[in-house]
Amino acid sequence: MSVFLQYLANGLTMGSVYAIIALGYTMVYGIAKMLNFAHGDVIMIGAYISFCVTSYLELPAIVSVLAAVAVCTALGILIEGLAYKPLRQAGPLAVLITAIGVSYFLQNAAQLIWGATPKNFTSIVSFPVPEGLRAYNVSAVGIVTVVACLVIMAGLMWFTGRTKMGKAMRACSEDKAAAQLMGINVNRTISMTFAIGSALAAIAGVLLCSYSPVLQPTTGSMPGIKAFTAAVFGGIGSIPGAFVGGILLGIIEAMAQAYISTSLANSIVFGVLIVVLLVKPAGLFGKYVPEKV
Amino acid sequence: MSYQNAFNPVLDRRSIIAGVAGLGAAGILAGCSGAGASGDSGAAAFKIGSMGPLTGPAASYGTSVTGGAELGCKDFSTDELPLVFKAEDDVADGEKAVNAFNSLADWGMQALVGPTTTGCSLAVAQEAESAHLFMITPSATAPDVTDGKTVVFRACYNDPAIGVHSAEWLAKNFPDEKIATFHNAGDTYSAGVHDAFLQKSEELKLDIVDKETFKDDSATSFTNQLTKAKSAGATLIFAPIYYTPASVMLTNAHDMGYDVKVMGCDGMDGILGVEGFDAALAEGLYLMTPFSADDPKNASFVSAYKEAYGELPDQFAADAYDSVHAIALALAEAGLSPDADPAEVADALPEAMTKVKVEGLTGTLTWNDRGEVEKETTVYVIQDGKYVLA
Amino acid sequence: MAVMKFLRDKRTRRDLLTYALVIAVFAVVYVMQANHMIPRMIAGQLVPICAYVVMALSLNLVVGVAGDLSLGHAGFMSVGAYTGIVAAMGLSEVIPDDGLRLIVAMAVGAASAALAGFLVGIPVLRLSGDYLAIVTLAFGEIIKEIVTCLIVGVDERGLHVLFNLTGSLSVSDLNLAEGGIAIIKGAQGASGVSVISTFAAGFLLVMVTLVVVLNLVRSRTGRAIMAVRDNRIAAESVGISTTRYRMIAFVVSAALAGAAGALFGNGFSQLSATKFDFNTSILILVFVVLGGLGNMRGSMVAAIALTILPEALRQFSDYRMLVYAVVLILVMIISNNDTLKSAAHRVASRFASRRKEVGADA
Prior knowledge:
Helix content of chain A: over 70%
CATH class of chain A: Mainly Alpha
Largest sheet of chain A: 2 strands, antiparallel
Helix content of chain B: 40-55%
Radius of gyration of chain B: 23 Å
Number of helices of chain A: 12
Shape of chain A: globular
Number of domains of chain B: 2
Oligomer: heterotrimer
């Protein structure tokens, strides 16, 4: 039983990281209706910024997180403005390929700037965890990650539900043309969404690397794809869906590694996704929109 | 949803032509501004090529090998036998490695020091054999690389040798520990050593309590695997893995509060150079590796390498340096001139290689006629951030 | 001249021109290669280029013609490659002739990939749009992971297959008889493969693929597939079974990808399972999109150009992938942005009208 709880703690930590990434994904998808494959690479950039600030400038961890958030937010707005905005009217495939181009660009730029040699990311959080919890693999990073994830989700729910900007985002996601007619600046709203998504990516990057310390230009790819899976799993576009999807994905992955096979853990995760989509084609919390003539 | 409608061809012929032309123009630009490889001098010089992943997740190993080989070409170049060097990127991919090999062959390469990774070496060794071009890999450990080939040599131990020596060393020094093995199932080197180690440890009656694996795309966190090893009661982990995942493993084990002895092999050499890695976590780590940057006899190489590339050399670099050393000696032994035809080189070098004796960075190296190297094994333990003989 | 009447059809003429171009390119390259006029670097790429061309053509059938975005096409290539390698290695005693054995290997690869395509298609084709994309991505990854768990060897008693679930098995667990060979060694992939793929075989496969794809597109079935793409509901209402026609496109595409995989796999002495990952699927999708959806000639040109270019840009080393990324983004933006596109058209039409004037003068 105690071993099971240890796996559960591992799964919950990783799941919370996936959930934060998935929240960013789902925000962007909900409004821009595009698969932003570069999201995972924004995570990587965020982690590098944090690493540089703590290791080279030797500033405190909280400054590094703020710096990462600032840089990634700017980067998100920049990417959206330069690469995606000119393609607003284009087909989804053109946008997808562009996103992949952006992803390649970020990875290769990171390699030129920071080198291909992996860096070992020193965890930004360290406080003593009570012995009783520590026995169950509960780490300081784990606690911070889970709390951060809950706070971010609650914050996003409040933001999209209560604020003017949040409501504008929801309007854009329902119908861009109608939103525009109602006086909403659609371009600014989309820009804002990318900013929020990228800021979340920065936080996710710092937490991801605090938990699993390898930092290299490809660090964000696999977590990015998995978090995207989590977002689809929960129903893409839905905020609670992304949260539940992320947590579930982390736990399924940990259990699959522990009790079935390390080699097939990803397959099991993807297999569960496929089954969920077949039973509920719009994901756990998604809204199914029937096709009309 | 109008997804399908949006699928109407978005590109007409003109834009394809524009696109291809754009790519072509980029290529021309690239050709103009790209810096030429080092030393393309007109005078007859012996051309040594090298390759490894210089980009992508495995790039650190490739940069070490090509760095070591480049330095070797500088140091062992003489007036009678000047050496020039060129490195190509293979991204640790068999297909790209064959392209890199062909590209080097077009350049006029007479001998190859590489490839770095085992998978690429398997693909390239076949090409080298059929093209009849001498190659010595500094770091590919699978027996298949040299098996049945006449012009393919190796400067490091092969997998079975590492696995067997490790098992023997553990049986002698830590016979009573409960051992967990931890290997990268997707990596030829790691799996090869692991298999040989298991076979030998059965014979030596080592107490293996747990076997854990991971793969490259899940090499970011090993908490679940370590939890399993810990609950199986393992007190020593034998991990024939590269240093990047090893740094993760040690960090994870520390974060979990899992106090365990760890033994690694040559691929783990370099762990102290991982940027940001808390070297204190590597204290007490056992390493079976032929090269120590702390050994005074290697000091001049270490300082030259540091000056050239800004980092501490690891065994990848040292093996590559020794490979160039061996080629230089063997060329002299065979009496080949720098402008010898690659086929001529491939005819004469294998024979000459078995006659030379390299007093190198990784020990005293001699070769048998199957292309395998013979050198002593050493196990180091890390104490106060230094390699100490264990 | 009644026999040549079919030439009056514009599409037929275009198809014949495509065949003629492919044959001409092959003939020129073949002669140049025979006379050692091609650098090794290009010569070594001829087989993979043929495989990528077939991959692009087959993916274009799914993405361009059937309108289903698939992000897991490399998975079928992987199935074809490994079954093809096993067939080629396993039959080396029975069929000593390399060329014949390669054809058998490609047929085996195609058949197994078609089966995989059918099995994957059953659940996948119930979805559409982005969901279909993510599920095909998932299947690509699953196929990759399953292959990394396989250990296959052959000896005189026949074929031995192990499924290495926990990762603790190795080749020695196959208990091969003396003289047996291990073909696939789990995650390490296949090694020691005898290289039997040739440029001529690759050309043959490209031609077969072209014949299959072009004829399928021009057939009744092809028109039904495109009808489903353009308006599923309208197609359904006139009695076209959408699942059936999408499935036909999906399975044919998988089979061709399998044959391409067998050609590719038997062209290298070592092949790791991770070769056929998500990035490879994306690479092929880029060929298709840059070449133009539904445009088979474009797919071929894009596959050839984008395979050779990164190699030709070697001296550019560190920057080449960065340039590749930038060019990819720019091409997408320029060809899809209405403002830029109309600007380009204006410039083009000005040139065209000037040419016309010149023509009138003369």
